[in-house]
């Protein structure tokens, strides 16, 4: 059996619930557990998932132990993060010492601060992952039924790809019609920048980059883009596709972020497109990472990303 990707979920499968970063409310956690059970899945939640810490959901040692147990467990097939917030980066030094477990990759879901773990799993272990909604957000009823149906189709192997059409070209390189193929990487802009120089650095050569952000003012977004430009992270990438860039209003109630994104795109030599319905807003569609996608530029831009068994080339 070739195991280049995760196995699709089935009713009765165990899903390890982890909190590698911040804690969520009890309401969110309980709602997330009920949601997993409604899909016929078996949620496994550590008894000490949350405990007192300066910032995070638990101490570094406990969060690492719980994540490690989930990664190496032989009876679970998926790992779902309850929340982002902050703290996953504190686990990287110890995660970097771990050896890749045997067997097929597990379905790993999360976003925001969890971007750090996407980078680690994609880069170090070669695991594909899902940039998708947190359990607490689902548990609090902040994800639409249409999006939940979309998740079900992806996670249970009912579709071999997801396609996001209607992408808008933002620069000259994106306005010409062409087809670009490359592995998808990315996540939260600020979190990606924080991986530079660590034991789990972010690599972008030959890849299609997805980016999203929330509540960062224009100058901060500009600083992030400028830093990644100067470090060469955009130079050898194939293209950039933007998800939601929300908030960041100035004192006058207006945001400079759209202007910052426009200037960045127009100065970029690689195609930059916007409109992927994923990020911190109401639209939290899934974006698989670590898989090769097909991006079509031009006035009618789109990106097709493979999912599940068929998309990731598993031969059963």
Structure overview:
It is a single chain. The chain has 316 residues and is α/β, with parallel strands linked by helices. The chain is 30% helix and 23% strand. The chain contains 11 helices and 13 strands. It has helices at 26-38, 60-72, 92-95, 115-124, 135-139, 145-155, 172-175, 189-193, 218-230, 257-267, 308-312, and strands at 14-18, 42-44, 76-81, 107-110, 129-131, 161-169, 179-188, 207-214, 239-246, 272-274, 287-289, 292-296, 301-306. It has a 7-stranded mixed beta barrel with strand order 6-10-9-8-7-12-13. Strands 2-1-3-4-5-11 form a 6-stranded mixed β-sheet. Helix 9 packs parallel to helix 10 (257-267). The longest helix has 13 residues, at 26-38. The relative contact order is 0.17. Mean pLDDT is 94; it is low at 310-316.
Spatial sequence of strands, sheet with the most strands: 6-10-9-8-7-12-13
Low-confidence region ranges: 310-316
Task: Return Rg in Å.
Answer: 19 Å
Oligomeric state of this protein: single chain
In DSSP terms (H or I, runs of 4 or more residues), the helix count works out at 11
Q: Spell the H/E element sequence.
A: EHEHEHEHEHHEHEHEHEHEEEEH
Helix content: 25-40%
Q: What is the overall shape? A: globular
Number of strands: 13
How much strand? 15-25%
Largest sheet: 7 strands, mixed, barrel
